[in-house]
Each structure stands twice: as C-alpha cells, then as structure tokens.
Design the sequence.
C-alpha cells in the first residue's frame, strides 16, 4: 500500500509542474502578444504623427506658395523640423556665467580704450606744447622781421636823403632831386616817401623859383611837365601840400586862350612846365616826370 501512495504523489507533483509550465507559457505568450500590440500601437501613433506633420507642412507650403511662391519645399521642411524641435533650456548658472564673461570682456575693452585715449591725450598735449613753442618762435621771428624791415626802411630813407642832397640841388635846409621816369601822381609820391622825402613842396616864391630853375636846367632845351606835391583832392579849389598844409603861393599858367586851373573835379594834381615853371592842373593818373624834396 505505501508504495502506491508515493507513486501517486509524485505523479501529482509532475502534473502540477507541467500545468505550471503551461501556465507560464500562456502568460509569456500573452505578454508577447501585448508587447506586439503596444508596438503596433506605437507604430500607428508615430505614423499618425508623421502624417499630421506632413499634412501641416503641406498646409504651410500651400500657404507660403499662395503668398509669394518663392519658398521651396526643402526650406519649409527645415522650418517644420525647427518648429518640432524641443527647445533646449540653458541652466541659469550657464546664463549667469555667459553674462559675466561678456561683461568682463566689455570691461577689458573699455580699459584698453581708456589707455589708448590717455595716450592720445598725452600726444595731443605734447603737440599743443610744441605748437605753442612754434607760435612763440614765429611771433619772435615776426617781431624780428618787423624790426629789420623798419630798420631797412629807415636806412633806405636815409640813403635816399643822402642821395638827394648829393645828386640834386640844395636850397637852404632842403634838397631837391629830379627823377626822369614816368609815374602817376600817387606812385611818384610813394617813391619819394620811400627814399625819405615827398614830392616837392615849395612854400614861397623864392623857394619855388629855385625849384623852377633846377627843373629848367635839367630839361633844357625841352619842355616837360613835372609833378610837384600839390593837389586839391580834398575839396575842389582848396590846394594843399602833401603834408596837409595849405598853399599860399600860386604860379598858374594864363594867356588869352587858356587859364589854369580849368580841369575842375577831373584834374586835381599840379605839375609845372620845365620851360617857364608855370603851374598846370592835370589828371592824377597821368604819367610824367617828378621832383622830390628831402
């Protein structure tokens, strides 16, 4: 009897083991089926998403083509891909580090600019100092040139006075010198002044007689008009010497045909004739010989 019960027990255990194996197989097969179903569902979801994305891309493409017709399908696909990308968020620490690095770079650039500006400021200051020195030297040179020029003018006037008295005619304290080249009245006066004198200004009859004789002797036997230092430019009929003094002696030419002065406002400067010493009023721009006094 006991051996039979043991045999039944082992048989039952074997049956239970087999049944458990079969149950495990069924569970595994069910699990595999479920996994396959999930995979199929995922594939379907992905296909739907892809179809939806394609549909959205096609809609966008159609809209863009309706607007300008210039954007290509590749650009739209790229744009769709960009829109579908999940934006990556940068941690706050990285943003702060980036900002601090940029600020540090800006600060170093500002420092370099400050250094450069300081160098430029130093150079400008040096240039300004050099320019001030050059201006001072130039001012000194101008003063020296002015002094030399004044000395030269004084020397020329002194030389002219000496030449006038050596080559010309002396009368009491004056000397007269004739210049035999043609000049208008103003130029003749300037040339006389540069030589230390003025156009001849005989103040009385005796002095004028000496001047007239000197002119006569210089041009004899010819008759030439010669400028002397008398004019009525300030007021017609008011005759003044070049030094501003009023003329008190006159020796105008007069005959039965001509009476001087007769030029009015057109003839304001006085010349004398070399043959008889008579006075004539003439246009001041007329060119003729002249006599200077020193």
Sequence:
């Amino acid at each position: 009897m006991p051996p039979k019960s043991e045999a039944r027990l082992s048989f039952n255990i074997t049956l239970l083991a087999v049944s458990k194996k079969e149950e495990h197989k069924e569970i595994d097969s069910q699990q595999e089926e479920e996994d396959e179903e999930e995979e199929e569902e995922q594939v379907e979801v992905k296909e739907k998403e892809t179809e939806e994305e394609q549909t959205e891309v096609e809609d966008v493409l159609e809209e863009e083509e309706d607007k300008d017709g210039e954007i290509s399908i590749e650009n739209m696909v790229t744009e769709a891909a960009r829109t579908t990308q999940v934006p990556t968020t940068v941690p706050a620490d990285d943003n702060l580090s980036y900002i601090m690095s940029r600020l540090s770079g800006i600060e170093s650039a500002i420092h370099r600019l400050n250094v450069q500006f300081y160098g430029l400021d130093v150079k400008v200051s040096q240039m300004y100092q050099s320019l001030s020195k050059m201006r001072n030297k130039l001012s000194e040179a101008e003063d020296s040139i002015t002094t030399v020029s004044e000395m030269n003018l004084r020397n020329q006037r002194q030389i002219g006075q000496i030449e006038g008295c050596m080559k010309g005619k002396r009368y009491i304290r004056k000397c007269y010198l004739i210049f035999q080249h043609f000049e208008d009245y103003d130029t003749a006066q300037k040339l006389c002044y540069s030589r230390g004198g003025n156009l001849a200004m005989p103040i009385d009859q005796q002095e004028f007689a000496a001047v007239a004789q000197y002119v006569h002797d210089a041009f004899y036997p010819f008759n030439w008009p010669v400028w002397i230092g008398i004019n009525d430019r300030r007021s017609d009929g008011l005759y003044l010497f070049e030094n501003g003094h009023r003329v008190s002696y006159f020796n105008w030419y007069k005959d039965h045909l001509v009476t001087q002065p007769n030029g009015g406002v057109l003839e304001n400067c006085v010349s004398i004739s070399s043959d008889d010493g008579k006075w004539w009023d003439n246009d001041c721009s007329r060119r003729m010989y002249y006599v200077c006094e020193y």
